[in-house]
């Protein structure tokens, strides 16, 4: 894993992205040589333009999720991702051609050839990503611990969608830890530094919670770090691999002294400008969809079309969120708040469709313009449930230190849920976003939202 703009990217994904960008860049240059006008091309113009084109197209498809591996049997998911990439990339490619300074020198045959080659590259990448993820430089990892946490780390590192490391084995951390891993992978008792050197380990993951009484070889961990070996604790591991800040390995001191959770004026200003510009653009683009939705709601269940509901926003302040009404008018006639479920019988037929496609959230773009919400952030919850969740889940109110979002990191990473356990799971993703939010991560979440909706990989 590599940290890029405060967000972790798998090393094998970065290798694929760089390889495809280089390949597309070279293909464009070759196409220029064979298909450009008879005169010698102006390489001072063509080379930067070809590089810009390659980086933009590969970056776009990275954001659309093309480079996220899929399971071998999930052919529908693989097809949906490739189809979405082609659907978006081809018109964007033609648009970029028109903006680049070589547009007048490049004949139509050159543009068509490059677009066809781009399509072939996307198809190839979609097929390759059905295979197990691999890396040219897979780090060799040693796990300290043999208990529950060590087993969880092993499972996360060997998932088909995640595997890009070579696990050399487990080393007992000391104490009375239970054996919950394969005993055949447990290394004989030996010094940590000796094991690291003998097995050429690049990274040590400390999967032991108890650190008092000499359970961990602190001095040897320091020696390993000074020797260039990466040392990772549980909190950092789950943040890096799962995109979560895990509650079961989280302490208040880590929130206070750790990296992230920065809320500077510059970041707030940039995020606000980004919200206004993108929200206005989305309102213009989705206006026909919203008009049709309003008409269908009135036809099926009458007025009102919109539904205003109190939610908890920045700093715990109560805001009124605007949504298209997706439930019957008497959904809460008894006045008691209820969790919305994935197959809620209170949802109308039109409501079921607009909830699945997240069209019901579009009016919240007006909340964004008013400044109550952001495009990306933790989803706002109702005050009744916030009081309940804050009592039962530690650090729940940390998510209120940023504006709530129309969409969020938890929404593109976790399936639909409506319980305290689901709220706890989503909070771990929300804490990751609060800790690491940048303009790059916001853009990634917006693209991921489009992919989740159009490919059907996620739920509302």
From TrEMBL:
Keywords: Membrane, Transferase, Transmembrane, Transmembrane helix. Belongs to the bacterial sugar transferase family. The chain crosses the membrane at residues 17-37, 43-67, 79-103, 109-128, 273-299. It comes from Thauera linaloolentis (strain DSM 12138 / JCM 21573 / CCUG 41526 / CIP 105981 / IAM 15112 / NBRC 102519 / 47Lol). It holds the Pfam family Bac_transf. Its main location: membrane. Residues 271-454 form the Bacterial sugar transferase domain. GO terms for molecular function: phosphotransferase activity, for other substituted phosphate groups. It is found in: Membrane. This is Sugar transferase. One of its GO terms (cellular component) is membrane. InterPro entries: Bact_transf, EPS_sugar_tfrase, Sugar_tfrase_EpsB_2. It is a multi-pass membrane protein.
């Amino acid at each position: 894993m590599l940290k890029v703009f405060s967000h972790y990217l798998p090393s094998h994904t970065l290798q694929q992205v760089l390889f495809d960008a280089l390949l597309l860049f070279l293909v464009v240059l070759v196409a220029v040589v064979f298909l450009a006008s008879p005169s010698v091309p102006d390489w001072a113009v063509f080379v930067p333009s070809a590089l810009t084109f390659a980086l933009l197209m590969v970056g776009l498809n990275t954001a659309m999720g093309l480079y996220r591996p899929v399971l071998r049997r999930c052919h529908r998911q693989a097809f949906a991702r490739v189809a979405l990439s082609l659907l978006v990339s081809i018109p964007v490619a033609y648009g970029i051609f028109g903006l680049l300074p070589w547009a007048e020198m490049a004949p139509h045959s050159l543009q068509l050839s490059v677009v066809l080659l781009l399509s072939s590259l996307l198809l190839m990448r979609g097929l390759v990503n059905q295979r197990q993820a691999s890396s040219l430089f897979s780090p060799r990892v040693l796990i300290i611990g043999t208990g529950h946490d060590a087993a969880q780390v092993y499972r996360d590192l060997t998932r088909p969608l995640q595997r890009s490391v070579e696990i050399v084995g487990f080393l007992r951390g000391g104490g009375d830890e239970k054996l919950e891993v394969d005993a055949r992978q447990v290394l004989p008792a030996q010094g940590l530094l000796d094991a690291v050197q003998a097995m050429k380990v690049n990274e040590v993951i400390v999967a032991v919670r108890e650190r008092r009484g000499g359970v961990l070889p602190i001095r040897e961990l320091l020696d390993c770090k000074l020797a260039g070996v990466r040392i990772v604790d549980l909190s950092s591991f789950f943040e890096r691999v799962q995109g979560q800040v895990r509650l079961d390995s989280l302490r208040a001191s880590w929130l206070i002294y750790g990296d992230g959770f920065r809320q500077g004026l510059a970041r707030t200003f940039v995020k606000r400008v980004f919200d206004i510009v993108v929200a206005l653009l989305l309102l213009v683009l989705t206006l026909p969809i919203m008009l049709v939705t309003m008409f269908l709601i009135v036809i099926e269940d009458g007025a009102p079309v919109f539904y205003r509901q109190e939610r908890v926003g920045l700093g715990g302040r109560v805001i009124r969120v605007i949504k298209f009404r997706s439930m019957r008018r008497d959904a809460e006639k008894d006045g008691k708040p209820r969790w919305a479920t994935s197959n809620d019988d209170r949802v109308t037929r039109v409501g079921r469709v607009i909830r699945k496609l997240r069209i019901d959230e579009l009016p919240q773009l007006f909340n964004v313009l008013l400044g109550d919400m952001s495009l990306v952030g933790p989803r706002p919850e109702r005050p009744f449930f916030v009081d309940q969740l804050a009592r039962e889940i530690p650090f729940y109110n940390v998510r209120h230190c940023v504006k709530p979002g129309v969409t969020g990191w938890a929404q593109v990473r976790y399936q639909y849920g409506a319980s305290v356990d689901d709220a706890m799971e989503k909070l771990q993703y929300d804490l990751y976003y609060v800790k690491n939010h940048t303009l790059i991560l916001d853009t990634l979440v917006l693209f991921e939202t489009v992919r989740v909706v159009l490919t059907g990989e996620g739920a509302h």
